[in-house]
Every structure is written in C-alpha cells, then in structure tokens.
Amino acid sequence: MIIAHGIGGRADLPVSLLVLLVGAVAVVVITFVALGSLWTRPRLQEGPRTDGRSWTVPVRAGLATLGFLGLLLVIGQVVPPMVGAERVATRATIAPVTVWVVFWLVVPFASAVIGNWYTDLNPWRTLAGAVGIGRMERVGLPTRFGLWPASLLFVVFAWFELVSPRSGDPTSLGAAALGYTVLLLVAMALVGRETGLATFDFFTPYNRLISAISPLGRDDRGRVVWRGWLRALTVIPERPGLWMFAVVMIATVSFDGAAGADWFRAITGTLGDSTLGRTFLLLAVIIVVALAYYTACAVAASLSGGSWSAAHVAQRFAHTLVPIALAYAVSHYFTLVIFEGQQLFAAVSDPFGLGWDLFGTADFRVRFFVRTSTPIWLAQVTFIVGGHLVGIVLAHDRSLQDFGRDALRSQYAMLVLMIALTSLGLLILSG
Amino acid sequence: MRNGVIVLLLGITAACGGDGSSAATTALEPTTTTTTSTAAEPGTASSPATTATSSITGSVTSTIPPVIDVELSNGEVTGPEVFEVALGDRVDVWVVSDIDDEMHVHGYDIFVDLEAGVPFNLGFVADVPGIFAVEVHTGDTRLFDIEVAG
Q: Least CB-packed of A45, A135, A166, A292 within 10 Å?
C-alpha cells in the first residue's frame, strides 16, 4: 500500500455518529428555512454592488516575489540529486508543504475571504513579464476551449497528489513544476499572457471561482473594493466547461475523502491498492459526480418547460457548486493546513532537506494543538452543512431569476442533488 | 544518516514526569520530550532506563521471543492494517523487517532504525488523536496505521 497525499500521513478520525446526525438534521432544517417564504425574489443576481469606496493595498511586489521564490524553491529540488547531494531522511524539504499546503490549499482558502490575490502571486505571470513573453493576446481558439483544458490539468494535478506514489518526493515535484512552467510559458508565448493563463493555468480559474465568494473585489486599477458576499459568483463568465471544472473541484476531494473511508474500501476492494486501480477510481468518482450533476440539470430543464437544454442549465447553475467544493476541501484539509502547514516553519531553514539550519528553526516539529477530536468533527460538519446552505441559496436565487415563480418546481432536481452531495460529504467524513 | 541513534520526538503529556531523560527535555519546545537512546546492538539488552514508559523501548533480545505483530519481508507486509489505541494509552507493537530500514511514525514523527531480523518494539504514549501512518523508508511502504481515538 502506498501513502496517499504528497504530505502528512496523519488523517482525521471518522466523525462520530452523534455529530453526524446533528449535521444531517441541520441540513434538512436549514434547507427548508432557506427555501421558505424568506427568499421569494432574486437577491444576488445583479452581481457586485460596490459603494464607491476603495483601498490601496500595496502588496503586489511582495506577493510576486513570494510566488516566484516559491516556484524557484520547488523547481530547485531537482538540483541536489544532480550534484550528488544526499538528503537527510528526517528532514522534509520545502517542496511538498509549498505545493500541497500553501499553493493548493492556503491560497484558495484565503481567497474565499480576502479576494483573489493569486493574480499577483502567480509566478508564471511574473516570469512571463520578466522575460517579455505573451504580449499579444489571441482570444480565438483558447476562448472556445474555455475551461476544458484547465479541467483536464486539474485532474492531472489531483492525480499527482492523490494517486501517484511520487507525490511526496521533492525531486518529482520539482520536475513536475518545471514541466508545468515550460507548458505555461509555451502557452503564453503562443496565445498571450492572460489568455494562456486563463486557459491552461488551472490555478487561475480555481482561485478566481473560489475568490468570487469573497466580499472583497478589485477594481480595474487593482484597488480593493467591497462588493458583498457571493455577488461575484453570480456573474462568473459561463465559459465552456465551467460546469465540468466545478464538478472536478468537488469530485477530486470526494475521491480523497472516500479513499480513506471503510465503506469505500469495502466496495472497491483491491482496486485501491494499485496506482492503476486508484487512477480508475479517481476517474470513476469524477464521472459519477458529473453524471449526477448533469442529470439533475436535465431534470431541471425538463421541469422548467423544456425551453432550455440540459447543457444550458448545467452552465447556469455551475457556480452553485463552488461553495460546496470549497466546503468539501476546507472540511477535509483544514487539519492538514493547521498541522502540516507548520512544516513550512522548519522547511524555510532547510528548504532542500540537506541538513541546513538557516534560521535556527530546522528542528521545529508540528504541534498538534487540538488534542481532542470533537472540535475537529464539529468544524468539519459545519463546513459541509454551511457549504450546502450557500449552494442551495445560490441555486434558489438563480432559479428565481431564470424560472420566475415556477422556481421551486424547477429546483426539485437541484435540491435532490444538493442534499445528495451533502450526504456524500457527511458519509465521507463518517468513514 | 544517524548512525544507530534513535531520536524520539513525542508530544507527551501523560508520561513526561521527571526522570533520567530530563537533560534532553528542554529541547525544541515545552511540550516535547526528547529522549535519545543508543540503538540496540543485536544480542544486547540495551534499552536504557531513561526511555522508561515515555518512549521506544528499543530492540530487546530476551529469553522469551516476542510475538511479532507486523513482519516486513521482501517488501510484503504481514499483519493488521490498523492498530487502535485510546487517547493517552500506550502503543505497543512488535515489528521485524528482513532488511535494515528506517521506520517513520507520521505525525508523532518518530524515526527508528530497524535492523534486519531484529524484532523492534514500537512503544509510545499516544497523546494526539487521529490516524497516523507508519511506513518504512525503502519503497515508502506503509506498514500499518495507528488509530488514536479520543
């Protein structure tokens, strides 16, 4: 058996039955309240509502430097083996915590609250700017691709983390980061910087979608504005494949959670023991979630009178999956962030795991400051239930907008889907 | 490589009463007990008294052979996939490998050197809840999980 995850090796205990039942009851009650007479007209559909105030937050250069430094440190992991330097077995390099915790979890989680700063942090934009690639934007073909290439790369990345046996190996991470950098540079050179990043750098749509939850936006001069919670989410451009990107966001973390659950292992048997088997399971989970969502959209389309296609509904409601995807990820990974994230403190002193101690922190060990499981369970269930609530509200609001007074009827399928997704999230938590 | 030195980093609350290991307890952080003991040579009962209840007992040759819980042979693991222990209780697992290897308890960050054919007693107080993977360095093979409930 091979350790999943590029980092860690600690997993949360299955949520206790009592906490689970409280969460499940909360789902039902909250759903009925949310869909009751409280919410009879669309409230979020007109998009950001700014009050004219804006603040300058001069962190652009700092973030760009940090992002670029992070990329260099990850790619730099390919160097020690080339020069024959031997890593110290008890020292983790900075690569896994940088990629799998900071870049993959902390940045998107933070962007849900403080808005999208990834545009400044993005090391590939910085790199392209420094070497002067991609000044000419070509929007034709890449725009038609929409989010399909990003969805595919997202799956590859998730596969690397959750399935590949090499995800924790710094040299492999460095090589992968180098390959990704080359891919993006070529893409930006061919189709332009912004078009290339929007199409092929899946972190760009990932952070953009999640940050649309945040009440803080940026105006065209980069100044911070207050726009209100969730308001940017309702005006997310419906680029081709948007729904698949949202599905992939949910399905990859579902796979990760389910892979550790007893019931999933009972169903899948020995498939989970081999890399090929786990690859198959990852794809299977994506397909199941995609089919569930698309079916719900098809039913909603037919209930609404048949004037809309399932594909259109799938795009119109894709944004409602974003809070659920975030909730799944936060629920599953916040202990990884607060515990394994501490590795960064040690790793800055010995970024290549060669026995250095630059800042005297190299021997710092993770402090498990939460010493009982109950607070972790409560937080996990709260995230899942909260994500569901926000998803329901968004779907309800959108259907009021699109279907008018027949909203409730058209929404039965979405409601079933949302409750199914929440149940899946809770089921995964309960192991 | 840390030649035969077993360094234990255990966040111990239950078992860090003052004993002979106090010289090392000031290291790193207040809640951590650091116990350093020399590794066992085959044929010598070497576990120092200072490791007492708070730490790895080291490999011990006694007249009664221990019951091996987990055996690693040709990269294949034989034994339970999960050992369950209540929060605050002591983990007590005997491990033997057919090759020299390094064993790592994730989370608790215990690193020990296994010697080929010499049974090793993994013993420590489990004071952090969660599921923790125990693996060996060679091939990143997972030996088992320790599930600390509480």
A: A135
CATH of region B5-149: 2.60.40.420
- B53: which DSSP letter? G
d(C-alpha A73, C-alpha A79), whole Å? 10
Q: Look at the block and give the residue holding tokens 């209840």.
A: B53
Residue B80 carries which DSSP code?
A: -
Q: What CA–CA distances, in Å, run from A256 to A53, A236, A278?
A: 42, 27, 10
Q: Read off the tokens for B134.
A: 């125990």
Q: Which residues lie across from B141 on neighbouring strands?
A: A2, B136
pTM of the predicted protein model: 0.86
Q: Which two tokens stand for residue A30?
A: 């909250």
What token pair was written down for A2? 């091979």
* A10: nearest CB among B11, B81, B106: B106
Which of B11, B140, B145 has the CB atom closest to A368's CB atom? B11
Residues of A in contact with B27 (CB under 8 A): 363
- Residue of A345, A368, A372, A374 best to disrupt the B interface, most CBs of B under 10 A: A368
Average pLDDT per 10 consecutive residues for chain A, totaling 431 residues: 61 87 81 74 89 90 97 97 90 94 96 96 97 91 91 97 91 97 97 95 97 94 93 95 98 92 89 92 97 93 82 95 96 94 95 95 92 92 91 88 74 82 88 77
Residue B68 DSSP label: P
Cβ distance A365 to B127 less than 8 Å, yes or no, reads no
Q: Mutate which of B131, B136, B148 to disrupt the A interface (most A C-beta within 10 Å)?
A: B131
Backbone angles phi, psi at B88, to 5 degrees: 95, -10
Residue with the two structure tokens 């005297």: A360
Burial pattern A263-296, b for ≥16 Cβ within 10 A else e, equals: ebbeebeeebeeeeebeebbeebbeebbebbbeb
Instruction: List all residues of chain B from 35 to 74 with a beta carbon under 8 Å from chain A.
Output: none
pLDDT at B40 over 80: no
- Sorted by where each begins, the domain ranges of chain A are 17-429
Instruction: For this complex, say whether ipTM is above 0.90.
Output: no
- Chain B residues in contact with A339 by the CB 8 A cut-off are 107
Chain A residue whose CA is closest to B102: A89
Of B29, B129, B145, the CB nearest to A367: B29
Residue B53's nearest CA partner among B110, B15, B89 is B15
For B146, name the nearest residue in chain A, comparing CA atoms only: A10
Q: How far apart are CA A213 and CA A48, in angstroms?
A: 11
Residues of B in contact with A10 (CB under 8 A): 106-107, 130-133
